[in-house]
Design brief:
Number of strands: 7
Order of helices and strands: EEEEEEE
Protein name: YopX protein domain-containing protein
Oligomer: single chain
Organism: Asprobacillus argus
Structural class: mainly beta
Strand content: over 45%
Radius of gyration: 12 Å
Distance between the termini: 10 Å
Number of helices: 0
Largest sheet: 5 strands, antiparallel
Shape: globular
Length: about 80
């Protein structure tokens, strides 16, 4: 079975947040130009968010991010 994107957290803009032990706000987000349709886990509202990558040394982390509301971000990661 393939990997699926899952809601990881909802976080305020700039709030310290780690994916694979890396604070996403400390790195430039590279827009992959890929879009994914997701749902807000709280209100079930549909959104289209972008897939981003950040790089720390040889480590590349992919995640989906988008604003649910002003400066409130939904972060999605691959499950599995």
């Amino acid at each position: 079975m393939g990997k699926k994107w899952r809601h990881f957290t909802t976080v305020a803009d700039g709030e310290y947040f780690l994916i694979d032990e890396i604070n996403i706000w400390d790195h430039k987000w590279i827009d992959t130009k890929q879009k994914v349709n997701i749902r807000d886990p709280l209100y079930n509202q549909k959104y289209t968010f972008s897939i981003f990558e950040i790089q720390d040394g040889n480590k590349i982390i992919k995640f989906i991010a988008g604003e649910f509301s002003n400066c409130v971000w939904g972060i999605y990661t691959l499950d599995g």
